[in-house]
Amino acid sequence: MKCPFCGYHDSKVIDSRAVDERIRRRRECLQCSKRFTTYESVETVPIIVIKKDKSHESFDRNKLFNGLLRACEKRPVSVEEIDRMVDEIESDLLNTLDREVTSYHIGELAMEKLKKVDEVAYVRFASVYRQFADIQTFMAELKNLLREK
């Protein structure tokens, strides 16, 4: 880190702490011994969602949260648990090398998490997500769920 006082290219970190979503570092120049502060932030590359109609939009964790919240309505699933599922899905997406992901893939990840947490919420989410056309399609999904147990 270049010293703002003398221009020397090396300094030592005296103190580091998290401030908001950044890291504040107190530094000391190894040449002139003056102290200065730097702020660092993590650079994130946005995730682009490719929707069914082939349009693109930025990933919105609130949309995912609200969809899971609707599926879990009147079920014994806490808001903290829903938030944890959203965090895990977002983390899975960020850990892939792909910056573009299909809405289908996000829906599959959500159903995978819901299936482990609450089967009724899973079926609710699947019925909207997979757009069940009739009761036979709905029953087929229930039979698959029972077979997996």
| Cα separation of the termini | 57 Å
- What is the rounded Rg? 23 Å
Shape: elongated
Could you describe the largest sheet, including whether it forms a barrel? Answer: 3 strands, antiparallel
Given the structure, what is the number of helices? Answer: 5
- DSSP, total strands: 6
Beta-strand content estimate = 15-25%
- Low-pLDDT sequence parts: none
Largest beta sheet: strand ordering: 1-2-3
Rounded average pLDDT: 89
Count of the domains = 2
Instruction: Specify the helix fraction band.
Output: 40-55%
Structural class: alpha+beta
Output the helix-strand order. Answer: EEEEEHHEHHH
Report on the structure:
This protein is of the alpha+beta class and 149 residues long. It has two domains: 11-41, no CATH class; 48-148. The protein has five helices and six strands. The chain has helices at residues 61-71, 79-94, 103-117, 119-129, 135-148; strands at 11-19, 22-29, 35-41, 48-50, 56-58, 100-102. The strands form two sheets. The protein has a three-stranded antiparallel beta sheet with strand order 1-2-3, with no helix packed on it. Strands 5-4-6 form a three-stranded mixed beta sheet. Strand 2 (22-29) and strand 3 (35-41) form a beta hairpin. Helix 1 (61-71) crosses helix 4 (119-129) and helix 3 runs antiparallel to helix 4. The mean pLDDT is 89.
